[in-house]
Design brief:
- The longest helix has 18 residues.
- The two termini are about 30 Å apart.
- About 40% of the residues lie in helices and about 15% in strands.
- By secondary structure, it is of the alpha/beta class.
- The chain contains 10 helices and 10 strands.
- The strands form 2 sheets. It has an 8-stranded parallel β-sheet. A two-stranded antiparallel ribbon has the order 1-2.
- The chain is globular and about 60 Å long.
Length: about 300
């Protein structure tokens, strides 16, 4: 294996999540972002209406994604959204997706009641960007036998956190994730249902996110499968001086570096392009055979 590739020792690398089975020792799962929000940072509400959200689901399935991540409230501060409204946003999309596919479905929320409604509608995983700010989220996951993504962030949900500071962003993020995973396990979530995400750009500036990417093996070595959500984020735009709609090249470069550094789940907007990049990396690493062989064999 190439020495430049980091292979973390994973807790239960072979996992069944929902109706899908993965081997994260030699596989990368592609997670498609489905935002049913009017104010999401990248798609700016393009999939807010139910019909557009379900069209986005269909498009993701055409490209054979492994995972659908459905959210009804952005991480960033914005207009208040009640629990009832958030449920009304995400549950119909989850139900529509579940009727169409056996792909993993996650709900991105920081509210236990929304998580419970999402699981009842067919979701398999809670994707929590608040780092279990509310420990009751872990209780819901444990009760329902679902999976859990724990993401590093510092602020209370939907709360501004200007000028975040760290003595060592990587070691502090790693310690946070270890502590929160330990909390989840103590509240009944088995270790083989936990996934971690360092939270690029979440209460971090561009230098912090670049440092996290550069030293990603230090996060991957914690041992839980590592998810990275870097798609079109501001640290890419600020690094390359690119506006929101022109960050795909930077996103793909960051995805490749992240996979080589131990990431095993990638959360993306541009599904077709990301799938091609991920599949190429898997083939270079010997994890995926070529689609066909014609060059110099015929």
């Amino acid at each position: 294996m190439p020495e430049s590739v980091y292979y973390p020792e994973l807790i239960s690398p072979q996992r069944t999540i929902g109706r899908r089975t993965f081997d994260f020792s030699r596989q990368v799962a592609i997670m498609a972002i489905i935002n049913r929000t009017p104010d999401s940072f990248h798609d700016r509400g393009r999939t807010f209406s139910l019909d557009k959200a379900l069209m986005a689901v269909e498009n993701a399935l055409i490209h054979e994604v492994d995972w659908l991540d459905i959210g009804g409230v952005p991480f960033a501060p914005g207009p208040p959204v009640s629990v009832e409204e958030e449920i009304d946003r995400v549950v119909p999309v989850i139900e529509g997706a579940r009727s169409r596919t056996d792909a993993v479905i996650s709900v991105e929320t920081y509210r236990p009641d929304v998580a419970r409604a999402a699981f009842a509608a067919g979701a398999d995983v809670l994707n929590n960007t608040s780092g279990l700010h509310d420990p009751a989220l872990a209780d819901v996951v444990a009760e329902t036998g679902s999976g859990l993504v724990i993401t590093h962030s510092l602020a209370d949900p939907r709360t501004p956190y200007p000028r975040p500071e760290y003595d060592d962003v990587v070691s502090e993020v790693a310690e946070f994730l270890r502590r929160r995973a330990d909390l989840a396990e103590k509240r009944g979530v088995p270790s083989d249902r936990i996934i971690i995400d360092p939270g690029h750009d979440l209460n971090k500036n561009t230098r912090h996110s670049l440092e996290l990417t550069r030293r990603l093996p230090e996060i991957a070595q914690i041992g839980y499968p590592l998810l990275v959500a870097v798609s079109n984020k501001d640290f890419i735009g600020e690094t390359l001086k690119r506006e929101q709609e022109k960050r795909i090249e930077g996103t793909l470069a960051t995805l490749v570096v992240s996979i080589l550094s131990g990431a095993r789940i990638v959360r993306v907007h541009d599904i077709e392009e990301a799938t091609q990049a991920v599949n190429m990396v898997e083939s270079i690493l010997g994890w995926r055979p070529p689609a066909y062989m014609r060059h110099n064999v015929i």
